[in-house]
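Many introductory courses stop at the sequence. We go one step further.
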Amino acid sequence: SWIDVEPDIATIASGQTQEVTVSINPPEDFPDQTIILGLRAVGDDVAEGSVKIREGVVGLIFATIGTDGKASGTLADFTVAKRDFIDPSATFYTTLTNTGNITLKPTGTISIVNSLGKTVDVLELNPDGKRINPGQIRTFSTTWQSSLSVGVYSASLQLDSSSAIDGNDSEVLYLFPWWFIIVIPSLLILVLILSRLVWRKKA
């Protein structure tokens, strides 16, 4: 085998740590690409009544082999989901495709701009550092919450060049929260009543 794990068997007591070395020695004709290794650690069987339970954890190791790996991807879709225009929150869904042969970890921003051209917020895309494997399509969700925003806004997606993914996009948001819908008609009614009272006094 060209993958060695040392030690391959170890006993780790509760609260202790164990360093594990993974050595990868691929054959010369192995194509340049990212491979994913799963490192699994399991515990002893624990009997609960008539059932035996074995707990374990799995860690993933991403290893890029060779120097000619191709890092590339495309923006498949960028959409915004809102329940209605009264809801002050908005969730953006960014769908990306890995068209290369190595794993990508996309980064970027979503800028929220009001109708006056002022940037009111900047959201981070993929803050958890999730990866896209070669040939995989993955959707990232980003939520914006602002209870005081009113009017028409634009949301612009900007992918970092280091992500090796081409494409930017934008969406339009219409935000008219419940307090705006209640307050504005109430103010109009109040102005109408006051203007009528003033008119009657003058008459």
